[in-house]
């Protein structure tokens, strides 16, 4: 499948697909004319990447999570390293949410 076909199948721009390739998330082969050739399962891989990005993971973290991803949603097969990575991400999100709650409280106090 060519990059344009993968873009059409996933709704992700070709530019973003090339970025995923730069980040090591997609590994297309090259044709004799140097076109990117993606395997059929690349559609599911892109859906997994999007799902993990939506969950708040960075592309560096996703590179570690993808080998454990199953299905489009995706589901993650937990091993100790992956569980630790996910806990670390959740802790970072909790800290960011707490800071945001504190800022919201301060803005409300200024309005009162």
From TrEMBL:
**Does this entry carry the keyword NADP?**
no
Q: Name one Pfam family in it.
A: MerR_1
> Per the record's keyword annotation, is DNA-binding included, yes or no?
yes
UniProt-recorded Gene Ontology molecular function terms: DNA binding; DNA-binding transcription factor activity
Q: Which residues form the HTH merR-type domain?
A: 1-68
Report the InterPro entries cross-referenced here: DNA-bd_dom_put_sf (IPR009061), MerR-type_HTH_dom (IPR000551), MerR_fam (IPR047057)
Q: Which SUPFAM superfamilies match?
A: Putative DNA-binding domain
Q: Which UniProt keywords apply?
A: DNA-binding, Repressor, Transcription, Transcription regulation
Q: What is the top-level taxon of the source organism?
A: Bacteria
The cross-references to PANTHER family, in alphabetical order and at most eight, read:
MERR-FAMILY TRANSCRIPTIONAL REGULATOR (PTHR30204:SF69), REDOX-CYCLING DRUG-SENSING TRANSCRIPTIONAL ACTIVATOR SOXR (PTHR30204)
Protein name per UniProt: MerR family transcriptional regulator
From which source organism is this entry?
A: Nakamurella aerolata
């Amino acid at each position: 499948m060519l990059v344009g076909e993968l873009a059409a199948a996933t709704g992700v721009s070709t530019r973003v697909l090339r970025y995923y390739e730069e980040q090591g998330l997609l590994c297309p082969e090259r044709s004799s004319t140097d076109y990117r050739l993606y395997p059929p399962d690349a559609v599911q891989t892109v859906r997994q990447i999007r799902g993990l990005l939506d969950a708040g993971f960075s592309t560096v973290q996703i590179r570690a999570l993808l080998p454990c991803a199953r299905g489009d949603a995706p589901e993650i097969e937990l091993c100790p390293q992956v569980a630790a990575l996910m806990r670390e991400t959740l802790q970072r999100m909790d800290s960011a949410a707490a800071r945001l709650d504190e800022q919201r409280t301060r803005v409300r106090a200024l309005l009162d």
